[in-house]
Each structure stands twice: as structure tokens, then as C-alpha cells.
Specification:
Layout (H helix, E strand, L loop, with lengths): L1 H24 L6 H19 L6 H16 L4 H23 L5 H30 L8 E3 L6 E3 H4 L4 H4 L2 H6 L5 H20 L3 H21 L6 H26 L6 H7 L8 H11 L22 H9 L1 H23 L5 H20 L2 H4 L5 H20 L2
Antiparallel strand pairs: 1-2
Length: 400
């Protein structure tokens, strides 16, 4: 009987990983209602086998916030249920997989991260192949085809498939000696995605990659502040950065790259980084929060369709109540990340990877209308939050 139960749990786990990969890959343009049905079935079986709902205040807060958002924003019933249930179910499933047993929990976390990263990155690679083959869709600006749906997607939406792997560039260099094959693939994928982003005049991945490198360097210093070899590490990192800078300068001088640079033109577009119209729209949205407290899409974004900020776009659509509830959920999830980083029992590699992915999506949400564009751009964040929460519970149980 016991052996049969073990086999059932293995089948459930393997089935979960396959489903999650297909979901994040958006295989054949997987419909939201099919994803919702699949996630609901797997959650039911985890509840049935584990004899517990595994729901806490974060899940209730997230579900209520998104349900209220969908209702006040006048979503159809199907869209409202998908927007509210899918992010919560993905969070619950990832939390369940981590906590299903203490045995090999870290391995399951890496598998959860792998199916997510593989799905998203492969989708991004396939879309990039279409871009390099066909270019921008004629007369539509910075728009090109999606491999599965055949729809024309804006560059801001295409970028979401590029963002996650950028968060792993620093760890790939840091742990290269121990994991040469995986880290080599991550570095090569990062290089490919940077070429793809610059070629398509997409500055968001470039900026987020730079910010994440700074963040993870700071994290490296903090985690190694008591290490006597820290100065040596910093010296070699500084030397490597200097060599890269010199090579970049030589390359620019040799090919007079700055005269017609896709990167420079991209960074300078629309007022540049610091004077970009979307930041002006966001400041204007903050001023209008209490002018339109019940939403209704009345805010002035200086001619932009969206504010390019998940929280403020939610305020524009459904008012200040969902806006402040989502901020509360964000603060709680950020505290969970900080607790992970200061936990002495947590795996060091997971600290870099989970915090990097978390902040990658947070940065993306600050400058793109992810939730308004597609709920599937928002669910990876709640999925990661579920992993972090499950890991906390596991570490607490181990060291009780």
C-alpha cells in the first residue's frame, strides 16, 4: 500500500512538471481555460493526496485582489475567473511541489525552475527566429509574429520571454566552474537574447539585465562579506569587467559603431531612459489616483494606451482598492524574498536565482502593462512566490 502511494505521488509530480512546461511554453497557443482546467485538476489531486488545502493569507489576498480587479474592470466572467484563479493555482501548485516531502526538495525546486525557464526561453527563441526571418510586421511598427498563435505581438510583450534567463547571467558566471554545461548554455542564451533585443530595438531587456547584474553583485558582496577571499574575488571581477569594457571600446572604435548603433538609438528613443514618456505617464497616474478612485479607464497617460506599470494600470482600470491590495501582496512577497536571503540554511545558489527572477519580473511590471496584456505574463511571478513560500515552510520544518 505504501509503495503504491509513493508511485502515485511520483506520477503526479512528473505529470505536474509536464503540464507546467507546456503551460509556460504556451504549446500550440494553449487556451487560458485549458490551462485553468489543468491547474485545477493538479491542485485537486495534491489536496486529495496531501489531505490539506495549503492555502494561506497570501493566496487569499491575491485571489481576492484579482477577482475584484476583474469585476470592477468589467471583464467577462471567463476572463475574470482566469485572471483571479490561474495565478493563485500556479502559486499553490509550486508551493505543493516544494513541500510534498522534505526528501530532495531542492531538486524539485530546480525542476520547477527548469520547466519554467525552458518553456519561456524556448518560446522566446522560436519567436526570435520568426523575427530574424520575417522582421517586423509591415506597417505595424515594432511588432512581429508569435510562433503559436500567429498573432502580431508588440515588442513590449515579446520581451517577457527574454527577461527570465537574463536574471541568471551573474549566477552562470559565478557557478561556472561547478556547472560548466548548464552555465555555458545560459551565457550563450543571454548573448543571443541581447543580440535579439538590440536588433529589435528593445531596450527593456538591456536595462533590466544591467540592473540585475548590479543587484546580484551587491548580493554577492553581502553574502560573502565575512569571507577572507572577498577582495580577491572583487579584484578578478573588476579585471574581467575592465577587459570587457576595453574590448567593447575597441569594437566600437574599429567599426565606428556609435554612428549607427541600434543600441544607442534604442536607448535614446522616446526621450531616452530618464525622460521617457511612460515615466511621465506614471507620475500623472499617481496624481489621479484619488481623482478616479473607482477606476473606469479615465486617467490621462499623455496619449499612451497604458501607463506601463501593473499597479497603476490596475488603478486606472478598477480603482484604488485593488491597487493598494496588490501593493500589499507585493510588499509581503518582497519580505518573503528578504527572509530567504538572510536565512543561513537556504541554498546559496537558490538565493541568487530566486531573488534574480523575482526582481526581473518586478522590474518588468514597473515598466510594462503585463497584467493588462496577458494573464500569462503575470503568473510566472506568483509561481515564483509559491516556490519561495514553500521553501520557507520546508526550511522551518527542517530546522524546527
Amino acid at each position: 500500500m505504501f509503495c503504491k502511494l509513493i508511485e502515485q505521488k511520483k506520477v503526479l509530480l512528473y505529470g505536474t512538471f509536464i503540464f507546467l512546461f507546456l503551460y509556460f511554453f504556451q504549446f500550440m497557443g494553449l487556451l487560458n481555460r485549458i490551462s485553468l482546467l489543468g491547474a485545477g485538476i493538479f491542485y485537486f489531486f495534491y489536496v486529495y493526496t496531501g489531505k490539506r488545502l495549503n492555502i494561506d493569507i497570501r493566496d487569499v489576498l491575491l485571489g481576492f485582489t484579482l477577482l475584484l480587479y476583474g469585476y470592477l474592470a468589467n471583464f467577462s466572467f471567463t476572463d475574470m475567473v482566469s485572471a483571479a484563479a490561474l495565478p493563485v493555482l500556479l502559486s499553490l501548485i509550486s508551493k505543493y511541489v516544494v513541500t510534498v516531502s522534505a526528501d530532495k526538495a531542492e531538486k524539485r525546486i530546480w525542476l520547477l525552475l527548469t520547466v519554467f525557464l525552458l518553456g519561456f526561453s524556448l518560446h522566446g527563441i522560436l519567436n526570435s527566429i520568426l523575427y530574424f526571418k520575417l522582421g517586423f510586421t509591415e506597417n505595424m511598427g515594432r511588432v512581429w509574429k508569435d510562433i503559436w498563435t500567429g498573432l502580431d505581438l508588440r515588442a513590449t510583450h515579446q520581451n517577457v520571454y527574454v527577461i527570465p534567463v537574463l536574471a541568471l547571467l551573474f549566477p552562470a558566471f559565478l557557478f561556472f566552474k561547478k556547472h560548466k554545461t548548464v552555465c555555458s548554455l545560459l551565457i550563450l542564451t543571454n548573448i543571443f537574447f541581447m543580440i535579439y533585443s538590440i536588433s529589435s530595438f528593445s531596450r527593456i531587456p538591456v536595462l533590466i539585465c544591467g540592473i540585475l547584474l548590479i543587484w546580484e553583485f551587491i548580493l554577492f558582496v553581502l553574502l560573502n562579506r565575512k569571507n577572507r577571499n572577498l577582495f580577491t574575488y572583487l579584484k578578478y571581477m573588476g579585471l574581467a569587467a575592465a577587459v570587457c569594457a576595453v574590448l567593447a571600446i575597441i569594437f566600437c572604435l574599429r567599426f565606428r559603431w556609435w554612428e549607427d548603433s541600434a543600441l544607442i538609438n534604442t536607448l535614446a528613443r522616446g526621450g531616452g531612459i530618464f525622460h521617457n514618456i511612460r515615466f511621465k505617464a506614471q507620475m500623472n497616474a499617481l496624481r489621479q489616483l484619488f481623482t478616479y478612485p473607482w477606476g473606469g479607464y479615465h486617467m490621462d497617460f499623455y496619449g499612451l494606451e497604458f501607463c506601463h506599470n501593473v499597479w497603476l494600470d490596475m488603478a486606472n482600470a478598477s480603482g484604488i482598492v485593488p491597487f493598494f491590495l496588490l501593493i500589499l501582496y507585493t510588499i509581503i512577497s518582497a519580505i518573503d524574498i528578504v527572509k530567504l536571503l538572510i536565512n543561513p540554511f537556504a541554498d546559496v545558489k537558490l538565493k541568487y536565482v530566486l531573488s534574480g527572477l523575482y526582481f526581473a519580473f518586478l522590474l518588468y511590471f514597473m515598466i510594462e502593462p503585463a497584467l493588462m496584456a496577458n494573464i500569462n505574463f503575470f503568473t510566472p511571478w506568483t509561481y515564483l512566490n509559491g516556490i519561495v513560500l514553500g521553501y520557507h515552510a520546508l526550511l522551518k520544518e527542517r530546522n524546527a
